[in-house]
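Researcher: Hi, I'm a grad student and pretty new to this. My advisor asked me to get structures for two proteins we've been looking at. I'm not sure of the right format, so I'll just paste the first sequence and hope you can take it from there.
Model: That works fine. Here's the first sequence with its structure tokens right after it:
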Amino acid sequence: MPPSDAKLGAVDPLSPHVTRALWYVDVLNARGVAVTPHELDRFAITEPPRASIRQLWKYGAAFEVLGEVREAEPVAGYMFAMGWIRGDDRGVELTTKGRAVLSAGADEGQLKQVAEPVVTDIELNPQDPLVFTTLTRRFAEAGAGMLVDPYIKADMLGWLTEATSLSRILISKKENRERSLIAVALDTLPRGNTIEVRATDSPDLHDRCLIAEDGTVRLLGASVTGIGKNQTAIITPDAAIMNAYRTRYESLWKSAERVEPQPVRAAPPAAN
């Protein structure tokens, strides 16, 4: 027989300390990354760097009562200790664990296990300092999906390969110069081989959208390159419109030409 409640005693609510550790394991496990007991304990006992109070002022008047102004603390040592980055004084890069945490879009609400309501339409305000955090979280939710963006710039590929799990990007053939830069980026980026880019000259390629791994479609009001510069939004259409976009762009993908990775060409030697 199961033990009685009296024998079990009162069950205390989980402390933030334990909740934070549970969140960490759940985030990494959901992305196929194992966490050893030693790594979990290290995460639990290592205090994260404090944020600047100036950045948090808008969250309440409690900081005003404290009467202190605190600068944000450095984060590199903490991230090294957590195994989220690797490298040396010449440069660092995200590890598998670091990419998993980034793709989870961890923020204060997640750490406190505050349930986020289901959001279908999302405003992307260029004045919002967290606009790219919001964008990253929504793109990460798409899993190994496809981004349709005719005029995406090559300099966005680093963010897409490191912070999301997208596996495909459909672009327009009209941007010849940008297509060449994308080909070079695919060859030079550390994770350029995780994503396939195809280009089409079809006039049917116009609207930007994100087709998730599960088939869900979200419309983007602007090119990814313009987010953070212009007011726009992510819109979730009804099922019929989703199906129309998904059918059209999957068909264009099949007939599109693959953008092959291209190494950087060395400059020809100067003539004597």
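Researcher: Oh nice, that was easy. Here's the second one.
Model: And its structure:
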Amino acid sequence: MKTNPPRTMVGGMPMPGLLERVLKAVFLTVICAVVVFPFIGVISTSLAPPAEVTKAGGFVLFPTKGIDLTAYRSILSGGTVTQALLVSGFITAVGTTIAVLLTCTLGWALSRRGTVGNRALLLIVLISLLFNPGMIPSYLVVQQFGLLNSLWAVIVPVSVSAFNVIVVRSFFVGLPAEIIDAARIDGASEWKLFRHIGLPLSKAVIAVIGLFYGVGYWNSFFNAMLYLNDSSKWPLQLVLRTYVVNGVELGGQDLGLGSEAVPPQTSIQMAILMISIVPVLCVYPFIQRHFAKGVLTGAVKG
């Protein structure tokens, strides 16, 4: 009988398998380093003392002289960045609340088969997934409604996403019909069905679309750039684009420091960048456990 020669073993594992695992580990380590390295640099530069940032030429990987919060105190001292942070908070909170309410109510209405205009309205929502309005028509609509140079111009036009509506509708369609029928027999109206059955059973999908809307509003800058002429109404992302991406310097008057010394511009820019990132990083871990459940259930059912 012919026997195959034994394979080389290292620690009880065949050599080809060990080589494959080592290559995967090296590849993943390189990818993680490429992602993490710039982020560490941003954090370190924003926390490094101004003298060290100036000496390093604008970028510090690891601060060697301790942590200094001068850059954060400067941008949060009541100037342009502080105002933009409050504006972004208002836009995100109000916009997300309105968007979630509109999306859930529309998704519930579209999930109730047999209601008047259900199919026509669903067709309109589906068509809007394929055809988006251009920049000029959108601007003209906002202008005709008198929303120019108003925060509502950033909130209202994007308050309903057709994709999110379809996800919510699919979730509502997949709810057990027996529960809804039993509630109807007990005399529940459509509004009570939505309030006491639909919403409590859809916490996962609501959390997911709330995250989508919240991140979208927090990161929005293009609509603000189009519709807001008053710089005091700029959200944080538009300030980030102006003073970080475009390289416009922030002076003492812009920061609300008056005659006080202004930290290096690189420290200020990195601090603004960190403030724009941290809120999303803080919220995402609490929503992550609902993410797969909400999206997959809403997309597959119905």
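Researcher: Is there anything I should tell my advisor about the second?
Model: You could mention this: The two ends are 60 Å apart (CA to CA).
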